[in-house]
Amino acid sequence: MAHAATVVKQRFSETAHRAREKADKAAEKIMEQRRIVDSAMSVPEKISPRVFFGLSLGSIILSLGLFAAKRKDDAVFVGHWAPTFLLLGLFSRLVSSKQKY
Fold first, then answer.
1. Helix 49-68 crosses helix 81-98 at what angle (to 10 degrees)?
2. Which of 37, 67, 73, 81 could form a disulfide with 59 if both were Cys (CB 3.0 to 4.6 A apart)?
3. What is the DSSP letter of 3?
4. Short-list 86, 56, 62, 58, CA closest to 75
5. What would the DSSP string read from start to end of 40-73?
6. Contact of 93 with 45, CB cutoff 8 Å
7. In whole angstroms, what is the distance from residue 74 CA to residue 64 CA?
């Protein structure tokens, strides 16, 4: 009977050890992914919101030029860039203001 209890304790210990190893590996992966996300979040912060505003105006002007050149599909495609650039500029402002606190 004592032998069975020893075997159960040993197996429980081995299982707990494997679980700890897996948890440690998962925590390492989470930390690695967090570093990747943090570095990606810092990219828009390094670019001035004025650059995004300029890109937005540029895409609008280019879209108008394409429309005047009777390339309506291309004009609509390029025209859709403007709100994306404006949102990126807004995002960069939000990210930079959050990190100050």
1. 180
2. 81
3. H
4. 62
5. HHHHHHHS-HHHHHHHHHHHHHHHHHHHHTT-HH
6. no
7. 10
Q: Is 81 helix (H, G, I), strand (E, B) or coil?
A: helix
d(CA 81, CA 21): 47
Q: Does residue 101 surpass a pLDDT of 50?
A: no
User: pTM surpassing 0.85?
Assistant: no
Q: Which residues contact 93 (CB under 8 A, 6 or more apart)?
A: 49
Q: How many helices (H) and strands (E) does the chain have?
A: 4, 0
Judge residue 24's burial from the number of C-beta atoms within 10 Å of its C-beta, 0-12 exposed, 13-18 middle, 19 or more buried: exposed
How big is the chain, counted in residues? 101
Residue 43 and residue 96 in contact, taking contact as beta carbons nearer than 8 Å: no
3-state class of 26 per DSSP? helix
DSSP state of 15: H
